[in-house]
Structures
1.
Amino acid sequence: MKLGLETESYHLFFQQGVMDIFSFISKTSELGLDGVEINIIPDVGLHPVFGVLSSDSPEYLAKVRKTIEAYGLYCEIDTRFTSHESVTKAVEIASALGADVIRTYMFRRGEYNPQRYPEIIAQLKAQVPLLSKKRIRLAIENHEDETADEIINIVKSVDSEWVGAHCDIGNGMMAWEEPVDTVRKLAPYAYSTHFKDHIVTRNGEELVVCGVPVGEGSIDIDTCFKTLVDESSLTRINIETCFPYASRFSRPKGTTNTLKGTFTVKPAPFDELKIKPLEYYYPAKISEAVLQELMEAQERCVQVSVQALKNLRKKYC
């Protein structure tokens, strides 16, 4: 099983301009990993169209691809939405970079609307000829709102070898879904992954799901990893350590709503007098000192998480 790293794992470094795609590729190799997953979604401090990439010019993308290949790494792409424009842009970039899998998700946070599923299914079916032509698979992620069953229904409705699932082992928690259940359901349909760890904590009085280094949270990472090895056709697992990060629950009720086991409430990873969990993702808004503290924590998180995944691979592969 190959292991890759998603650029989101260093989101603070990209936001602050202290890391670009070339230094990220080099860092991934330095960590002893096998591939990169490149997020092309715009954000603070990133390109307004291409995310962690600086351009879609043929010359620039050729340089990125050459760097990836020089380190002997695989490449996957992360984008969002299912519109013709979004998918076509991602396919063009993926093709230029030699990526054979694209992760996407259906809804912006707060815009979850299952009544749009027929429209989304039609959009995905319309993209199949392009995906087939370019030999690139599209993986639909459970992105904090959807349950595994909803993703499976989408994949089955599209009914194409070029459209499958993206199994994020932690995102189902926001819909009150047990991670082991998420993974067991999505594994047979999975074309790509995000491997991470989470806890439930409080932002003031509000319960939130919070990213932590892999192995330091509440997710049964052993069972999740072994399930991906045994019950999927995957040959790669991507590390996406969403830390520092926290997200609200997307549903009042889901497959469970008890604060036990995986959903046991635990202390927040940082002093709430300095920064609250829902402020973690953009700590520069709080202070320079807090930003530096969280950047140091993010670097540690990547190091710890990479070692945890290597240990799991040694144990189960």
2.
Amino acid sequence: MRFLGLDLGTKTLGVAISRSGIIVNKLNTIKHDNNLKFLVKEVKALCDEENIDIVVLGYPKNMNNTIGEKALYIEKFKKLLESSGIKVELQDERLSTVSAEKMLINFDVSRQKRKEIIDSVAATIILEDYLKRRTNG
């Protein structure tokens, strides 16, 4: 099976891919102006191009497990993706961006470069977590 991991940030959509269901690769970052319809078209094109079976969308629950404004926005994006024929599963993304930031700092990535790639690295973490959960039940 083939999976696409997504991390929807305020300005960019981070994208990661697993063509094997085991190894995850950072793919790219798509800039947006909160235009969800534009993003749906971009994701649909990627899914068609890469023969994606499941899109894994980062779901930002609050630390106390409640649903906030950002999670509601993600739910709206999920519905739009599904209405275009894409199978979507949510993955808890708590602290994925924090983990991505720490990893990039440890690799001595410049602040400017971190800004450019943080969402795609977070998407990689989200997809890796999803695949581990799927494998381990």
3.
Amino acid sequence: MRESLDHGAADDTRRRLVSAALKQFGRHGFTATSTRALAAEAGTNIASIAYHFGSKAGLYRACGEHVAAAITETVGAPRDHAGCSPAEAAELLERMMRAMVGFLCTSPAADTLVAFLLREMAEQGAALDTIYGSLIEPKHRELSVLWGAATGRDAESEAVRLAVFAMIGQVVYFRIGRPVVQRRMGWDDIGPAEAARIADILARNLRAAIKGQRL
């Protein structure tokens, strides 16, 4: 029983450290974030960082792994879509896009995940390799395969890859531009109802883009 309790406490400390690190690294970057600030944010002692992650760099890598895993849980792990019809591919693209909108616009966890990811992309930090290799590239390839199936184009063509980035970019804007969107729309918040309206607009854009590229 004692061993089980100790294990649970250790897991809780790890979770709190990763949560704290996502916030601190997302706000200040790796170099400017001290182990003291990380421990204070997590409500634990500095030694716990070395104990659980080996170093600040180890905690940083764990943050990258957490971001990749959390987003994969939302949008799903890449799957094989061989033999998918154009209609099925278009439906899957819309379903994934709506899942991304729902997560980015309404999940409280999205704030820290996106802040960390944006800083990683801006600074090309070490965790970006982890996120790109385990999330961005494989998911982008899957979406490209679906886009290719929906339009009849080569999945690895420049046009398809750029179209997929454009689709993702539209969704992400409603997270990073949230304060501006709320002001212009007169919304107090972006909750499920507002997110559904955003998703409906983006779904129409998606269908039009697919139709425009269809061979």
